[in-house]
Design goal:
Largest sheet: 6 strands, parallel
Number of strands: 6
CATH superfamily of the largest domain: HAD superfamily/HAD-like
Number of helices: 9
Bound molecules: 1,6-di-O-phosphono-beta-D-glucopyranose, magnesium ion
Shape: globular
Strand content: 5-15%
CATH architecture of the largest domain: 3-Layer(aba) Sandwich
CATH topology of the largest domain: Rossmann fold
Strand order of the largest sheet: 3-2-1-4-5-6
Oligomer: single chain
Distance between the termini: 10 Å
């Protein structure tokens, strides 16, 4: 049996821009300008690991109590940005694939590093469509570690080789590849080199693709 695992930020909803805005504010408070290229390396990476990367890029060292304060601050900023998310924010192609999966009996899971995943899916009104939700609260190892996707496959009861993962991040594609799943990268006009397949948008994937891919 085949299964789909969707990443959240950048695949189901464009919250990646809000993570970037929030981290930019935090970085500025360290006197450091976070670049777009650096932000690409934060996609799919946990909040804690993201802060560690920013601190190391800025050559800044702070103690664990301060770290906790900045992690909380980042999440407050982020939660303010995502407060008004609604069905309208679901990215093109998501509903089409969810409907296709339902018709074909393909179970779907969420595989996200975000600890805000449940809340976001509720705001979008599609939480009930996911048989399994693996989020940052259920994982201890950040992507590119395959834990999030392997747990998803295990909870769905499917062979990892039969899982198609939709990802927008370098770390997430690497995690899917390590889990021996089929990695499908969705990143606009860009490309993720290591992905098995690249498409501009979920909407661009012809449905026949799923008949032949595994
Ligand atoms: P939170 P994904 C990831 O979500 C984001 O891409 C990444 O930028 C973020 O740091 C991480 O979630 C943690 O999110 O701060 O909400 O717990 O792409 O794996 O769905
Ligand atoms: Mg993502």
């Amino acid at each position: 049996m085949k299964a789909f695992i969707f990443d959240l930020d950048g695949i189901i909803v464009d919250t990646a821009k809000y993570h970037f805005k929030s981290w930019k504010i935090i970085s500025k408070s360290f006197g450091f300008e976070l670049s777009k290229n650096q932000n690409e390396l934060l996609k799919g990476v946990s909040r804690e690991e993201s802060l560690d990367r920013i601190l190391s890029w800025g050559g800044i060292s702070i103690d664990k109590f301060e770290k906790k304060k900045y992690l909380e601050k980042k999440n407050e900023l982020y939660k303010d940005f995502i407060n008004n998310l609604s069905q309208m924010d679901i990215l093109p192609g998501v509903k089409k694939l969810i409907d296709f999966a339902a018709i074909k009996g393909i179970p779907i899971a969420l595989g996200s590093a975000s600890k805000n995943a449940h809340q976001i899916l509720k705001k979008l009104g599609i939480k009930s469509k996911f048989k399994v939700i693996i989020d940052g609260n259920l994982t201890s190892k950040s992507k590119p570690h395959p834990e999030v996707f392997l747990k998803g496959a295990q909870m769905l009861g499917v062979n990892p080789k039969k899982v198609i993962v939709f990802e927008d991040s370098i770390a997430g594609v690497e995690a899917a590849n390590k889990a021996k799943m089929v990695s499908v990268a969705i990143c606009g006009s860009g490309k993720i080199e290591n992905a098995r397949f690249n498409f501009n948008s979920l909407d661009d994937i012809p449905l026949e693709f799923f008949e032949n891919v595994i």
